[in-house]
Amino acid sequence: MTIIIDGKQLAKDIKVELAEQVAEIKTAGSKIPHLAAVLIGDNAASESYVRNKVRSCEQVGFNSTLIRHDASISEDALLDIVDDLNKDEDIDGFIVQLPLPDHIDEQKITLAIDPRKDVDGFHPMNFGRMAQGLPSYLPATPYGILQMLERYGIETSGKHCVVIGRSNIVGTPMSILLSRKAKVGNCTVTLAHSRTKDLKAETLRADIIIAAIGRANFVTADMVKDGAVVIDVGINRVDDASKKRGYRLVGDVDFEAVLLKASHITPVPGGVGPMTVTSLMMNTLKASKREIFG
Ligand code: GUN
Fold this sequence. Notes:
Elements: E1 3-4, H1 7-27, E2 34-40, H2 44-60, E3 63-69, H3 75-87, E4 93-96, H4 106-112, H5 124-131, H6 140-151, E5 160-164, H7 171-179, E6 188-192, H8 199-203, E7 208-211, E8 229-232, E9 236-239, E10 247-250, H9 255-258, E11 264-265, H10 272-288
Helix pairs in contact: 1-10, 2-10, 6-7, 6-10
Bound molecules: guanine.
């Protein structure tokens, strides 16, 4: 029987645990964790992600601040906002939602964020610390996947993991984290990407597949070994006239077919997605407790 990993439930459980910790913080009279989110423009997906982040703050009892500007904001003005947030003592951590408008250099904005408040874990200081196994804010999606593997008791040590996709946000950090000497880690990792010669040969050797390429139903059943753990990071819109909004969301994995082969699989929606927001909440709590940088 294939186990469908219930990210939605797991995220709920983690939020309950976080809310308990916030209740203790309140009882002790300590500072309530405070996350700020900066949203530029009106990208529909970004709006929904940020709404979710703010709602999750409310659910766990954090304070949150949403700063919105239209897409015409200058790079300098956004850098000023980042600088203000860096200096604001009440803000423990903040994120600048990506993507940003074309005239703004995302790298420049990321570098301007104080690493101590970089709860996205995107600053090279956090990325480098992660790569060296030092305390750091882990990027939300890989962190959420580690939580899933751990809480479902999935053995990683000595396993062969194939990560498909080498983005800075998911594939590359995931490959680093799973190869580290850590409680969840110790895998032999292959990082596959668009230039990989025979992807099927690679994935067929995998005990764990992490699909993060952003292409609907890309991983098919013939690419998966019997008993493999399949983690689907994709959130792709495909046209569907039967839906009111005209589309439905599907992952990077052909779920129905791969379900018959995998030992564990994550659905889309309801798999990795909900875990990313809880990771951000966990990082914000760490920021408020000064756990990473002291
Ligand atoms: N855009 C897509 N994912 C993310 C994320 O995790 N953080 C930020 N800031 N922007 C994103």
